[in-house]
Amino acid sequence: GGSNLGIVMRGADNCIIRNNVFSGHSNISIFGENNSSNCLIEGNTITATDGNSGAHGIAFHGTTSSQNVDRTRIIGNDITIANAASFGIEVGAFGGNNPDQVVVSGNVITGGAAAHGGGISFSSVDGGTITGNSYDSNAQTVTIAGIEVVASTNVTVGSNQVLGAAGLLSGITLNRSSYCSVAGNVIDGFGNATNDRGIYIFSNNDTLNTQSNSVNGNTIRFGASSGTNHKGIYLQCNNASTDCSNNSIIGNIIHGNSGAATRGIAIQHDAGTLDRTLILGNQILNVLIGIDRESGQTGTQILENVFGGIGSSDLGGTAGSGEVAVRLNPVLGQLNIASQLQLASGVLKDGGGFKHARIASGTTAASLHATASATWTFTTAFADANYTLTATIDNPTGIPIVAHTDNKVAGSIDIIIMAGSAAAASGTLNCIAIHD
User: Fold this and answer.
1) pTM of this prediction?
2) pLDDT band at residue 322, thresholds of 50, 70 and 90?
3) Could you tell me which InterPro entries the record lists for this protein (predicted)?
4) CATH code of the region 354-435
5) What tens digit of pLDDT does each residue of 51-108 get?
6) Which of 41-76 are b and which e, b meaning 16 or more Cβ less than 10 Å from the residue's Cβ?
7) Domain at 7-332, CATH from 2.160.20.10, 1.10.600.10, 3.40.50.410, 3.40.50.1360
8) What does the domain layout of the chain look like in residue ranges?
């Protein structure tokens, strides 16, 4: 430790850097650039405690015109980071070609004793995955985001955990990026200043759009209450030449803090094109306004969302041209003559069309991507196997990730979890099944 850089790769293909310990470097601990492709960075422990604003834990940059850092795999590393604008992991073009086939999985990233940029950053990446990682801001000021995707396409951000506090500006951001997926992540706490947000999808550049992205099945929990307008999911278009169309926000669970100016989901049109946004099947709880929108957006569809503990209104702002807002959205905890239903005693857990349960996931072996299976057997079978299952994990040990299902029949289904690190993984599966 204590030197400028830890390990540097330039023009070095097929490298493996595994099970090393780095500390005290004033710049990047592991750095690859200029045609350093097909590299595996796995199982390293990095503590970055001093240095300049670019002292990332692990970074791969194209750097020079026509140079590549493709097929980089950064897996199962433990990183502590605490420098003003630095990230635990950063991959991007930065003057070279856009990287592709980038995998960042199963890493544990923690903020040190000072402000820092965030956990993971992809910049100008054309194809990659950020999955099964854990990021903890350590209650420090985070100037950018827990996970950011900038000027990128075809990136999947899935099954990550972001633990934040008042200093976390954004949990996950898609900035000038298209055809990306943000799915199954848990954001537990984020900042409560004006316009702080759990997930932020936006574009403010006249040459790069933010379109055809999906934000599905995430769980977002607000942090401490304040009197400012902070948001669970925030979609913003604010450049006259920018297209922010065809984005979908589906099946997310947003737990507010009953703050005086909070929004569950907000759509803001400052300039450009914000068309055909789909907001479907979200659960929005304990905010001032459930879904807030501005008149400049067009063709928005707001369907089958569920609201509870709403301080003012389920839909706020002004409807845009061509908006479809189906007002059969049930509101939890209220009953009035407009056919809204109070559910005072819970929901039957084993009905003919809807079932829910909490079951043990089983425990994987202590190996990255090891799997374990749990069978959910229904007390009363569905009529057939035409049902949809959703599962999340509580009380995790290690980094359990819901991977897929198997052996789906009318009376039962197997749920497979996968370890996102080299440690054994397990937890409690919260399961919901809905028949067609």
Assistant:
1) 0.75
2) confident
3) PbH1 (IPR006626), Pectin_lyas_fold (IPR012334), Pectin_lyase_fold/virulence (IPR011050)
4) 2.60.40
5) 555 678 999 999 888 888 999 999 999 999 866 668 999 999 888 899 999 999 999 9
6) bbbbbbbbbebeebbbbbbbbbbeeebbbbbbbbbb
7) 2.160.20.10
8) 7-332, 354-435
**Neighbour count for residue 351 (Cβ, 10 Å):** 12
Of 43-52, 102-111, 123-132, 246-255, the least confident: 43-52
Cβ atoms of 360 and 367 closer than 8 Å? no
What distances in angstroms separate CA 178 from CA 14, 152, 211, 267, one per listed residue?
A: 30, 7, 5, 17
- Closest Cα partner for 417 from 400, 431, 434? 400
Report whether 200 contacts 170 (CB < 8 A). yes
Cβ atoms of residues 191 and 173 within 8 Å: no
Nearest to 375 by CA among 389, 387, 365: 389
Report, in angstroms and rounded to the nearest whole number, the Rg of the chain calculated over CA atoms.
Answer: 22
What is the rounded distance in angstroms from the CA atom of residue 49 to the CA atom of residue 74?
Answer: 21
pLDDT digits 0-9 by tens, 222-232:
988 777 888 99
